[in-house]
Every structure is written in structure tokens, then in C-alpha cells.
């Protein structure tokens, strides 16, 4: 076994780099070191020096130089034949990797919590399609806990969640802030009160709520923990649209994102109920598995969300 055979990188000390091999192939094809240098975009002295370096590395003479041009030696013919195989293999390798990259960059799977999926992502995805029309996007919606599971299970490339903090195992960045509102149909007694509803009363009242694991429930649980926690819900529903429809129908007061109820408040199908205490605010985050930042179309989508700050207060 040679001295360098077991040493990482040992082979690299005995095999010229691809650029040098491509130069040698050009000399063989064109019959001139000067013409080969021009084709490869280097000066003739640089090309000549590169060939001499190869000869020193390999320990054989590759070219016979004369005023009429450069001719391969017998050893040079053999080395050129081997070099052609190496360059062709490298080209095949590069084509394969490019195909893998193109396939990866032509698909994007996004996981998003319900409010973001319904009210923010459509605009971002339209903008992404303008910039990357060949990218096929799949959207998977669920609560914040479900989004975290999809990312950690490699079922999505980028996620969006609402809540008080980052789910375990994920990295992320705040892209906007949202406000939660207590809303009710116009006939509800809370809509006629002059004084705000105290947090203790809100905690003691059955509400129309999203399910545990949603960003909305996380914020409510934290805000009302000091007041005995949430009472059993009147209804527990798995989507923002369903909660909103129940509230509009008069089922009871609900807690919903400001993003979700703008149209209903303007049309007076719902009324905002004033609450005594701090705002029920939450961050909206883009998230991804810890240590693996977004790449390709996921990175581009993240950049688009940072341009759009309309929900931020």
C-alpha cells in the first residue's frame, strides 16, 4: 500500500484537478497550447505553467513543444485518455446533482397554522409564484403543534405558527405580530356593556374556542392562568372559520385573530368586546427544524413574508 493511500486527501496529491485535465484535453484536441489557453480563458504562460505542474506531479512528460505547436507524447496520449474518462465522470456527476437540485427547488411543502394559512399565506404564495413560476407548492394546514410535528417529521420544508414561543426542536424568526379579540354576535349581553369584561369573568365563561395545541389556546391559557384557567368551552372547533361561523350564529363569544374578523366587524355581524387588562397578543413565526435553515424556494418564501408587514401593529 502506498504511503498516502490511507490518508484522507492522499489521492488528491496524485491526481490533477479538473481544470488542468480539461486544459490537457483542449491541447490534445486543438494541437496548440496557445489555442487551448484561449479556449479555457487563461494566458499562455499560465497554461504552460499548469501543464508543467501536471508533469511534475505525475512524473512524466505530457507534451512535446515546438514552434509548430504542442504534440502529445506517448505518455501524454495515455494520460489524456484517462483524463477524458475523469472529466466525463465529473460532468455526469455535476448533471446528476443539478437534476437533484432542480427537483428539490421545483417543489415546496409549507405547513401553517390555521390563521396564517387562511389569511396570510395566499398572498405570499401568489408573490412566490410570480418570482418562481415553476415551483409547485403544497400547503398543509393544522394547529401549531401539528405544524411542529410535520417539520420534525420532514413532511414540510417551512412552517408558520402562532403562539408564545418556539415549539421544541425548531428554530424560527418572528415575521409579524397579531392581536386576539374577544368577539360576539350583536345580541350577546357583553356587546351592550359599558365596562370592559374582566379577565376573571372571561376565564369563568364558556367560550367558542379552538382546540388545545392551537396558538390561540396557548395565548388564552397563559393569559387566564392566574384567574383559574379557561372554563369548559361551549364548543371546541378545529378551524378559525368554524369558530367564526359559530360566533356569528350566536352560539357564544369567541376569541379570534384580528386578521380573521375584519370583514365581520365591519359588517356588524360580530362585535368586539372590550377586555380589562393587557392585549391578548401573539407573535407569528416562520419555523424550521433546528440547525437546518431554509434553502431554495423556502428561503425565498421567508424573504417574501418579511417584506409584507401588514399584520404587524
Query: Please, what is the average pLDDT?
Result: 86
Indicate the proportion of strand residues.
Answer: 15-25%
CATH top level assignment of the largest domain = Alpha Beta
Q: Given the C-alpha coordinates, what overall shape results?
A: rod-shaped
How is the CATH topology of the largest domain named?
D-Maltodextrin-Binding Protein, domain 2
Considering DSSP H and I runs of 4 or more, what fraction of the residues is helical? 40-55%
- Judging by the overall fold, what is the CATH architecture of the largest domain? 3-Layer(aba) Sandwich
Radius of gyration: 32 Å
> Sheet with the most strands?
7 strands, mixed
What is the number of domains?
2
Query: How are helices and strands ordered from N to C?
Result: HHHEEHEHHEHEEEHEHEHEHEEEH
- The stretches of 5 or more residues where confidence is low (pLDDT under 50) are 1-8
Domain HTH lysR-type: 16-73
Protein name: LysR family transcriptional regulator
Pfam families: HTH_1, LysR_substrate
Keywords: DNA-binding, Transcription, Transcription regulation
Amino acid at each position: 500500500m502506498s504511503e498516502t493511500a490511507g490518508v484522507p486527501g492522499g489521492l488528491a496529491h496524485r491526481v490533477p484537478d479538473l481544470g488542468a485535465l480539461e486544459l490537457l484535453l483542449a491541447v490534445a484536441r486543438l494541437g496548440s497550447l496557445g489555442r487551448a489557453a484561449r479556449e479555457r480563458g487563461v494566458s499562455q504562460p499560465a497554461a504552460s505553467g499548469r501543464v508543467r505542474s501536471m508533469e511534475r506531479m505525475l512524473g512524466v512528460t505530457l507534451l512535446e513543444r515546438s514552434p509548430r505547436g504542442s504534440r502529445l507524447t506517448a505518455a501524454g496520449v495515455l494520460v489524456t485518455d484517462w483524463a477524458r474518462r475523469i472529466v466525463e465522470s465529473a460532468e455526469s456527476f455535476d448533471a446528476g446533482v443539478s437534476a437533484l437540485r432542480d427537483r428539490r427547488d421545483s417543489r415546496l411543502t409549507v405547513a401553517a397554522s390555521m390563521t396564517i394559512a387562511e389569511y396570510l399565506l395566499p398572498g405570499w404564495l401568489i408573490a412566490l409564484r410570480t418570482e418562481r413560476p415553476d415551483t409547485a407548492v403544497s400547503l398543509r394546514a393544522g394547529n401549531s403543534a401539528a405544524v411542529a410535528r410535520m417539520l420534525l417529521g420532514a413532511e414540510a420544508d417551512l412552517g408558520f405558527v402562532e403562539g408564545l414561543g418556539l415549539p421544541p426542536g425548531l428554530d424560527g424568526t418572528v415575521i409579524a405580530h397579531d392581536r386576539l379579540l374577544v368577539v360576539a354576535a350583536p345580541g350577546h349581553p357583553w356587546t351592550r356593556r359599558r365596562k370592559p369584561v374582566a379577565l376573571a369573568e372571561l376565564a369563568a365563561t364558556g367560550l367558542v374556542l379552538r382546540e388545545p395545541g392551537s396558538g390561540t389556546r396557548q395565548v388564552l391559557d397563559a393569559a387566564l392562568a392566574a384567574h383559574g384557567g379557561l372554563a369548559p368551552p361551549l364548543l371546541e372547533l378545529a378551524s378559525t372559520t368554524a369558530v367564526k361561523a359559530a360566533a356569528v350564529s350566536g352560539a357564544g363569544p369567541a376569541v379570534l385573530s384580528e386578521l380573521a374578523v375584519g370583514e365581520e366587524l365591519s359588517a356588524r355581524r360580530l362585535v368586539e368586546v372590550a377586555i380589562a387588562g393587557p392585549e391578548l397578543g401573539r407573535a407569528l413565526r416562520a419555523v424550521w427544524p433546528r440547525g437546518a435553515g431554509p434553502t431554495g424556494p423556502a428561503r425565498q418564501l421567508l424573504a417574501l413574508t418579511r417584506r409584507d408587514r401588514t399584520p404587524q401593529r
